[in-house]
Design a protein that fits this description.
Strand content: 15-25%
Strand order of the largest sheet: 1-4-3-2
Order of helices and strands: EHHEEEH
Largest sheet: 4 strands, mixed
Number of strands: 4
Shape: globular
Distance between the termini: 34 Å
Length: 106
């Protein structure tokens, strides 16, 4: 399992090393939590979840559920021809916190 340069750049833009002044979690916290969970899911179950299409890489997505620090994240990976898995993108739902608003249950 490896992380593409594009994936790392996206992740660090979302979660700056050391955190952000406006309260975004740090890249280090992202690595220890959601990223570790996604990498484990990809490493242990990628092949079972894939449908192979001749000549095309298989793509899988993992939705990381919200936590106290992170809203929903979609992390995408590709199964390459050498059977290695590469993380290629991460997308955060920045509207999640606004959606919750003042909901006392959330």
């Amino acid at each position: 399992l490896r992380r593409s340069a594009q994936f790392v750049a996206q992740a660090k833009a979302l979660f700056p090393p050391g955190g952000a002044a406006e309260g975004r979690p740090s890249f280090e916290t992202f690595e220890q939590g959601p990223l570790r969970a996604a990498e484990t899911a990809f490493a242990t179950a990628f092949e079972r979840q894939c449908q192979h299409i001749d000549g095309m890489p298989s793509i899988r997505y993992v939705l990381v559920t919200p936590t106290a620090f992170f809203g929903p994240l979609v992390i995408s990976a590709v199964l390459l021809r050498d059977d290695s898995v590469e993380l290629v993108s991460v997308v955060a739902d920045d509207d999640y916190w606004d959606l919750l608003g003042d909901d006392p249950i959330a």
